[in-house]
C-alpha cells in the first residue's frame, strides 16, 4: 500500500528516544522545554505550550480564549472534526463558514457577509478558528481586519501548516491571531507520534494554557491564593478545572529531531507537489490545488488534493486506486454534515461550495519518503482510472 501520508523516521529519532529511555525522565523532563523553545523559535512566537495532541491544543486554546456556554465559535466546515469539536467541549455553539473554491480555505467574502448578518442579529462569534487547509495559509490580513471590526478572537488551526509562511512570517508567529495550534500526528509535516502545541505571544494566555494542560494546577507561589503556603515547596494549587493534556519527554525528544529535519521534509514535499502539477496539468477534467506563489508566502504542502468532475467519477477513481493499493483519501467530508452536527440542526445545502468540493475531492499520496517511482505509479494508475 502507498499511503496518502507517512512519517519519516530514521536512526536519529530511534537514538533520541533510546537516550530518553535511559535517562531519569520519561514524562516531564528537560526535553519538553527544549522542544517548546525550539518550536517557538522556529515559528517566531514568544511562547509554545506542548500538549498531548492537536485536538487537546484546540481545546485548551478555546478555554484560554474564554470560550464557554453561551458563546459562539465559527470555523471552516472543510476540516477535521476537531476544529469544531473544541468549541463544543467548552459548551459553546458552533457555526461554519463556507469555503473559497480556489483556496479551499475559509471564504473571506462569505465570512464578511455572515459577520454582517450576525451583527444585525446579535449573534457574533467570540472566536473564529481558521484552518490553513492542506498547508495553504488563509488570508490572515483580511481576517484580522474583520476581527477588529467585529470584535472576535482568531485561533489559527495550523495542524496542516507547520513550516508555511504568510507575508515573510512563519505560520505560528501569531501576528494576526491570539493563538496558533499545531498537530504532530504522523501524517503531518513533523511527528511526535501523538502530540500538539499551542503558540502565542500573550503571556497571560500562555500561563492559562499551561494551567489547562495540567489539571488546572499552578505551581508558582506568587499566584497562590493562600499565603500560608507561599514557602512550601510541596504545595501546588488547583485554581481551575484542567486536564492531563501534557506531552511526554519521549514525544518531545522525537519532535526535536523531526523539527531539525523540517526544512528538508518541506523541500521534498514541494518537489513532489510540483511533479504532480506538471504531470497532471494536461488532464483538463482535473482541478489541481492552487499553484500561485506570492512573494513572502510559502505552503508546506501537507495534502495534495485534486477534484474530479463529479462525485460519481470520484467514487470510481477512489475505488480503482484503492484496488491498486494506493491509499487515496477524502479530506474532508464536511463537518456540518456529520450526524452529530446534523443533530444540532445543520443540513445539506447550508454550505454549497464546501459540499461541492467535498463531493469531488481526492487526496493523492504526498510525504517525504514517497519515491518518484511510486509517485509515477500513482499518476499512471490515475490516468488508467480516468480512461
Ligand atoms: C485541521 C486539523 N485540526 C486538528 C487536528 C487534530 O490533531 P490531532 O490528531 O493531533 O488531535 C487535525 C488532525 O488530523 C487536523 O487535520
Task: Tell me what the structure shows.
There is one protein chain. This protein is α/β, with parallel strands linked by helices and 387 residues long. Helix content is 39%, strand content 13%. It folds into two domains: 11-260, 3-Layer(aba) Sandwich (Aspartate Aminotransferase, domain 2); 262-385, Aspartate Aminotransferase, domain 1, CATH 3.90.1150. The protein has helices at residues 11-22, 31-43, 54-64, 82-89, 108-120, 140-150, 203-213, 249-280, 311-323, 339-342, 352-360, 372-385, and strands at residues 47-51, 72-76, 93-97, 127-131, 153-157, 165-166, 169-170, 179-183, 196-200, 217-218, 237-238, 304-307, 361-364. A seven-stranded mixed sheet has the order 1-9-8-5-4-2-3, sandwiched between helices. A two-stranded antiparallel sheet has the order 6-7. It has a two-stranded antiparallel ribbon with strand order 10-11. α4 links the parallel β2 (72-76) and β3 (93-97). The radius of gyration is 22 Å and the shape is globular. The two termini are 22 Å apart. The model has no long low-confidence stretch (mean pLDDT 97). The structure holds pyridoxal-5'-phosphate. The site of pyridoxal-5'-phosphate (PLP) has 14 residues, from α3 and α4.
Give the SSE layout.
Blueprint: H1 11-22, H2 31-43, E1 47-51, H3 54-64, E2 72-76, H4 82-89, E3 93-97, H5 108-120, E4 127-131, H6 140-150, E5 153-157, E6 165-166, E7 169-170, E8 179-183, E9 196-200, H7 203-213, E10 217-218, E11 237-238, H8 249-280, E12 304-307, H9 311-323, H10 339-342, H11 352-360, E13 361-364, H12 372-385
Parallel strand pairs: 2-3, 2-4, 4-5, 5-8
Antiparallel strand pairs: 1-9, 6-7, 8-9, 10-11, 12-13
Helix pairs in contact: 1-8, 2-8, 3-4, 3-7, 5-6, 9-12
Pyridoxal-5'-phosphate (PLP) binds at residues 53-55, 79-80, 82-83, 131, 157, 159-160, 183, 185, 196.
Amino acid at each position: 500500500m502507498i499511503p496518502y501520508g507517512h512519517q519519516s523516521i530514521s536512526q536519529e529519532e530511534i537514538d533520541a528516544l533510546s537516550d530518553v529511555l535511559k535517562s531519569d525522565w520519561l514524562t516531564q523532563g528537560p526535553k519538553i522545554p527544549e522542544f517548546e523553545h525550539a518550536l517557538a523559535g522556529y515559528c517566531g512566537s514568544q511562547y509554545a505550550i506542548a500538549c498531548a495532541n492537536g485536538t487537546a491544543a484546540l481545546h485548551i486554546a478555546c478555554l484560554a480564549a474564554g470560550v464557554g456556554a453561551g458563546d459562539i465559535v465559527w470555523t471552516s466546515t472543510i476540516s477535521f472534526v476537531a476544529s469544531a469539536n473544541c468549541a463544543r467541549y467548552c459548551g459553546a455553539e458552533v457555526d461554519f463558514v463556507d469555503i473559497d473554491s480556489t483556496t479551499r480555505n475559509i471564504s473571506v467574502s462569505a465570512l464578511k457577509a455572515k459577520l454582517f448578518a450576525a451583527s444585525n442579529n446579535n449573534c457574533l462569534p467570540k472566536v473564529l478558528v481558521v484552518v490553513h487547509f492542506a498547508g495553504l495559509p488563509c488570508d490572515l490580513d483580511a481576517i484580522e481586519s474583520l476581527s477588529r471590526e467585529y470584535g472576535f478572537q482568531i485561533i489559527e488551526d495550523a495542524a496542516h501548516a507547520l513550516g508555511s509562511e504568510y507575508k515573510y512570517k512563519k505560520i505560528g508567529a501569531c501576528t494576526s491571531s491570539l493563538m496558533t495550534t499545531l498537530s504532530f500526528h504522523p501524517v503531518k509535516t513533523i511527528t511526535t507520534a501523538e502530540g500538539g502545541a499551542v503558540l502565542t505571544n500573550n503571556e497571560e494566555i500562555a500561563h492559562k494554557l499551561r494551567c489547562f494542560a495540567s489539571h488546572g494546577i499552578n505551581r508558582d507561589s506568587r499566584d497562590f491564593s493562600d499565603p500560608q503556603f507561599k514557602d512550601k515547596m510541596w504545595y501546588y494549587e488547583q485554581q481551575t478545572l484542567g486536564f492531563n493534556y501534557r506531552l511526554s519527554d519521549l514525544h518531545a525528544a522525537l519532535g526535536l529531531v523531526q523539527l531539525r529535519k523540517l526544512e528538508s521534509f518541506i523541500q521534498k514535499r514541494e518537489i513532489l507537489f510540483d511533479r504532480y502539477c506538471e504531470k497532471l496539468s494536461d488532464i483538463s477534467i482535473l482541478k489541481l490545488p492552487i499553484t500561485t506563489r506570492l512573494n513572502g508566502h510559502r505552503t508546506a504542502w501537507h495534502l495534495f488534493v485534486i477534484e474530479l468532475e463529479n462525485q460519481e467519477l470520484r467514487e470510481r477513481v477512489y475505488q480503482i486506486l484503492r484496488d491498486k493499493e494506493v491509499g487515496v483519501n477524502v479530506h474532508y467530508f464536511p463537518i456540518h454534515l456529520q450526524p452529530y452536527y446534523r443533530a444540532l440542526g445543520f443540513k445539506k445545502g447550508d454550505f454549497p461550495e464546501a459540499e461541492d468540493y467535498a463531493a469531488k475531492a481526492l487526496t493523492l499520496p504526498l510525504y517525504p519518503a514517497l519515491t518518484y517511482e511510486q509517485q509515477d505509479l500513482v499518476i499512471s494508475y490515475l490516468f488508467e482510472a480516468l480512461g
